[in-house]
Design a protein that fits this description.
With about 190 residues, the protein is an alpha+beta fold. The chain has five helices and ten strands; from the N terminus they run βββαββαβαββαββα. It folds into two domains: about 5-130, Ribosomal Protein S5, domain 2 (2-Layer Sandwich); about 135-190, 2-Layer Sandwich (Alpha-Beta Plaits), CATH 3.30.70. The chain has helices at about 30-45, 80-85, 105-125, 145-155, 180-190; strands at about 5, 10-15, 20-25, 50-60, 60-70, 95-100, 130, 135-140, 160-165, 170-175. β9 (about 160-165) and β10 form a beta hairpin.
């Protein structure tokens, strides 16, 4: 099963029976980012009737997901949003739908369709990228091997998190999970 992420916000909007639905998809990987995102939306849309949302985070403990109806009838707002995130296998994201009530009630079926349509539209317009799991490695190398290490890190898409220069070079590197053994082998072979 392939998982996907979004790297940039996307927004879409449409109207159903005079109610305006604004869908906002944002990268979001933990509770703090979620709180900030929702606070920003509440400030930007103080007159909105509802701000329903769903999120999916991949944590060390596993997948965490939740749907929130924001005062709409149970299961009519957050659940349809979450279902679209699940269907597209999107993680580390929050999708919120801001609703400005237009005076005509949509009924539970109409609400679920409208929130689901908002979620689907914004997801279809987003660029989804494959999720790559990284593993942190602590590496200590001689200065003479630094060019080889830099070339290797660049070639496999590793991300150097911290470097400490002393008698040797110590680095904390985030390596794609699929490349860990290859990196360990190459660093050992190069040392020989």
């Amino acid at each position: 099963m392939s998982l996907f992420i979004v790297n940039a916000r996307r927004q879409g909007e449409f109207v159903v029976k005079h109610s305006r639905f604004i869908a906002i998809l944002a990268p979001c990987s933990d509770s703090e980012e979620l709180k900030g995102f929702l606070s920003e939306l509440a400030s930007a849309h103080p007159q909105a009737a509802h701000i329903a949302y769903a999120f999916r985070f991949l944590t060390p403990e596993g997948l965490r997901e939740r749907a929130y109806d924001a005062g709409e009838p149970s299961g009519t707002a957050g659940r349809p949003i979450l279902q679209h995130l699940q269907g597209r296998q999107v993680i580390n994201a929050c999708l919120a739908v801001v609703r400005y009530f237009g005076g005509i009630k949509l009924g539970t079926g109409g609400l679920a369709r409208a929130y689901g349509q908002a979620a689907r539209c914004v997801l279809e317009s987003a660029t989804l990228e494959p999720y790559i799991a990284y593993h942190a490695l602590e590496i200590e190398i001689d200065y003479s091997r630094l060019p080889f290490f830099n070339h290797l890190a660049n070639a496999i898409g590793a991300k150097v998190a911290a470097v400490e220069y002393g008698p040797t070079v110590k680095a904390r590197v985030h390596v794609p999970q699929s490349q860990i053994e290859a990196v360990r082998q190459l660093l050992r072979l190069d040392a020989a």
